[in-house]
Automatic annotation (TrEMBL):
This is Receptor ligand binding region domain-containing protein. It comes from the Eukaryota. Keywords: Glycoprotein, Membrane, Receptor, Signal, Transmembrane, Transmembrane helix. It holds the Pfam family ANF_receptor. One of its GO terms (molecular function) is G protein-coupled receptor activity. GO terms for cellular component: membrane. The keyword Glycoprotein applies. Its main location: membrane. Residues 1-38 form the signal peptide. It is a multi-pass membrane protein. The keyword Repeat does not apply. It is found in: Membrane. Residues 59-242 form the Receptor ligand binding region domain.
Amino acid sequence: MSAMITNPQRRRSGHPRPMQATAAVLAVLCLAVTFAAAAQFKIAGVFPKGGGTTVQDSLTVAQDLVNEYASGTGGGNHSFVLDFKDTNGTITGSSKAMFDAINDGAVAVIGDLNSDSTIPMALQSNNFKVWQCTGSVTTPLLGAKNGYPYFFRTIPDDGVQGVFLAQFVRRMGWRSIAVLFSSDAYGNGIQSTFQTEASKQGIAVTTTQTFSPWGGPNADYSIALNAILHSGTRIVLFDTNGTITGSSKAMFDAINDGAVAVIGDLNSDSTIPMALQSNNFKVWQCTGSVTTPLLGAKNGYPYFFRTIPDDGVQGVFLAQFVRRMGWRSIAVLFSSDAYVLALPLFPRAEADS
């Protein structure tokens, strides 16, 4: 019978757009110990119970595939068990969930979903020498290996987005821009890297305004937008991990205050209604992260464009990857949001291959 193994280093010390990379995160963590002695290893998933249920479901599905590889096809003879902890969507809850996961014997932790809660968790993983991985947190702060040696992620950090957005502004010929960003770690991360690259590109940032994405006295857009209105700039970088309602309101306010172009939002579900607004008011809109093919219809969204390929490219690549792996049949599990509207391209591409 398999025995539960706790982290030996921790034992010695006396004293874890809507996430598409979830299964990959689990596989990466598990492969690190694939060729160890026969045992059962506990990996904790630390997420808010409300917003992280789809992540948990994805991990549960991936667990069977990983265990099949670890116990047979991959040459190993051990397995992994998942232990989910609820963060209640708060920083305090995330820290407690991380501590509970470590205390319960987790050798690695997957989570959380946002930067503000993941940073204190990474400090804990460092102190207790427990590996931590995320597929959604992008703050550059966690990239410092001297500060967070046990943390890693499966996606680029905000620095990539900030640098690209500044270069995009320059190539559009815009010499000045106003920045509106959320006051969380995500917004601050992109704003900081954008500001640095904008300076290198000779772009004048006329004003930087912030708002709270979680409510409170600084949650009102109107003060920030009024400052942008009087800055003399009509190009606005809107930088936030937004909701559909918040993004639509911000888009309307930006247009109402005279913006001639808008950059944002970050995910498909919130960007689609924004694109309808930009179409109605004939205001250009651009994104560097939204990939739904729906927005590629020029007859429906003539004022929308993006700087990256749409989901169709991903669907074609995935189908070709499956064929090159020699797999002749496959099952598909997908979320019901706008991100996966391109999935019909997947079987079509498989047939074409």
